[in-house]
Amino acid sequence: MQALVIIVLSIFLSEVHAGRKDMTDLLDSAVRQSGLKAEFVEEDDGDNAGKTYEITRNLIEKAQHSLLFVDFWVKSNNYHAKKPTVQKRRQDYYDSIISQLKKHQDHDGDQPFHVRMIQKPDQLEADLVYSGHLKECCEIQENCKTVSVVKIAPPCIHAHFAIIDERYVIWPILSSGPDGSGLRRHGALIFDDPNKYLVNRLKAIYTMLDKVAQAYQPNTISIPAKSN
After folding, report:
1. Closest CA to 114 of 53, 151, 68, 49
2. Fewest CB within 10 angstroms: 8, 135, 191, 197, which?
3. Residue-averaged pLDDT of the chain
């Protein structure tokens, strides 16, 4: 699995640090010393469909300190067409986040317990599940800004990732058709990063996004009509 970590970090660093040849040379020794562990969880059209939502939900439910999500918005028209198992696992994933926000309403740290940064183009369309989740986050944010913050920013990194308790990184592997009709979740890389080697680099990307981010407003997105 060490080879997998090196490959993924190489791809990541080549995008964020274009032209830095020295970065790749340092990867092997960094991974060996970091204690970073990775597992790839594959999804298919069978029992593993939506499995990474379930794994992420389990980590979210155990979170004690923080939840940080960075989304890269991709237009897709097929969320409602997913299998019932995937729909349930996806809904349960979002529900677990809301449950944690309600549980941590007395959070008084320097940073909000939950942050979601949405990298988006000028116009954003979202399905009912995602838009409903953002609406709930905003309602909680209105009552307690130390618990949850949702922001939007221009795209910076073409990837989604989540950081849970500044230790676990979830990196979904997604693809989509050119017309947005074929978003597919192939699985996710699950990192255990006790020494924060990857966590700190991803948080640096979040900080870069945060410098140009704006507060999310519910009217920022539109919901496309569901096709019959």
Report:
1. 68
2. 135
3. 79
Cα 225 from chain centre: 25
Look at residue 218 in the predicted model and tell me its pLDDT.
67
CA atoms within 13 A on the CB side of 57: 16
Strand 37-42 with 184-192, pairing: antiparallel
Q: Where are the beta strands (DSSP E) in the chain?
A: 37-42, 67-72, 114-119, 124-125, 148-153, 161-164, 168-175, 184-192, 214-215, 221-222
Please, are residues 43 and 174 in contact by the beta-carbon 8 Å criterion?
no
DSSP 78: -
* pTM to 2 decimal places: 0.80
CA distances from 154 to 151, 211, 223 (A): 11, 11, 20
User: What pLDDT was estimated at residue 164?
Assistant: 97
> What is the C-alpha to C-alpha distance for residues 93 and 112, in angstroms, rounded to an integer?
20
Residue 15: which pLDDT band, with cuts at 50, 70 and 90?
very low
- Pull the structure tokens for residue 180: 């947005």
pLDDT band, residue 98 (cuts 50/70/90): very high
Rounding to the nearest 10 degrees, give the CA dihedral for residues 74, 75, 76, 79: 70
Counted residue by residue, the chain has a size of: 228
Whether the Cβ atoms of residue 209 and residue 70 lie closer than 8 Å to each other: yes
